[in-house]
Design goal:
Layout (H helix, E strand, L loop, with lengths): L1 E5 L4 H10 L3 E5 L10 H8 L7 E6 L4 H11 L3 E4 L5 H10 L4 E8 L2 H5 L10 E6 L26 E3 L8 H7 L4 E4 L4 E3 L2 E2 L1 H15 L11
Parallel strand pairs: 1-2, 1-8, 2-3, 3-4, 4-5, 5-6, 6-7, 7-8
Antiparallel strand pairs: 9-10
Length: 221
């Protein structure tokens, strides 16, 4: 199962978090976000990361040209779209960045809304389900209704996001079976400042879960 830690702002923390067990790191490329990082900051954060760590830039309603430039300049391996991007936009982005993983994030409120995500599955590699917030795109600390996802199935892998913490992650994984999990605010001292002790505790609990002491990993590995 993939584990993505999002909202990385400090190079030394990116290295530490990768060494603790993260398979993907997320960098916020939305200027209005308190976790926003520039291209040069991303370059510094990914410079010493192992090649097998996914480096994902998070964008919201940015132009294809702007996304492409940041991806090329920063050395990103993936793009997460967290705005109102259409399936057609995702298709155009795929043509512009053929070798980059494209993730589409959705802020889910209702089962009906969840079903509309099927419109994107032909155009993106991975889906991400986050909690709805009327003003903020992510990193809100709010959880979504996991029950909505218990019967969810897709031909694309998907991340569970939204208010996940060391306290509730095993409860979440007991209810749903995602391909990956995405955590941000639940591991922070302040926006963009990760608490490495919490990160270590997260992987300790995931490890015990995987070993069967408190449960098991889902099948979406």
């Amino acid at each position: 199962m993939r584990v993505k830690i999002c909202g990385i702002t400090q190079p030394e923390q990116s290295i530490a978090i990768a060494s603790l067990g993260a398979t993907a790191l997320g960098f916020i490329c939305v200027p209005s976000s308190p976790r926003y990082v520039t291209t040069s900051q991303i370059q510094a954060a990914v410079a010493q990361l192992p090649e097998n760590i996914d480096k994902i830039g998070v964008f919201a309603n940015a132009s294809i040209d702007a996304i492409k430039q940041i991806v090329i300049d920063s050395g990103l391996t993936g793009v997460q779209l967290h705005g109102d991007e259409s399936p057609e936009f995702c298709d155009q982005l795929r043509q512009a960045l053929s070798n980059i993983e494209i993730l589409k994030a959705f802020r889910i409120r209702t089962p009906e809304q969840l079903q509309t995500t099927a419109n994107y599955t032909n155009y993106v590699d991975t889906l991400l389900f986050d909690a709805y917030h009327p003003q903020q795109l992510g990193g809100t600390g709010k959880t979504l209704d996991w029950k909505m996802l218990q019967q969810y199935s897709s031909n694309r892998p998907w991340f569970l996001a939204g208010g996940l913490t060391t306290d509730n992650i095993i409860q979440a994984l007991s209810q749903v079976n995602p391909s990956g999990i995405d955590l941000s605010s639940g591991l922070e001292r302040a926006p963009g400042d990760k608490d490495l002790a919490k990160v270590a505790l997260l992987f300790e609990r995931l490890g015990r879960w995987g070993d069967g002491e408190v449960g098991r990993w889902g099948d979406g590995e």
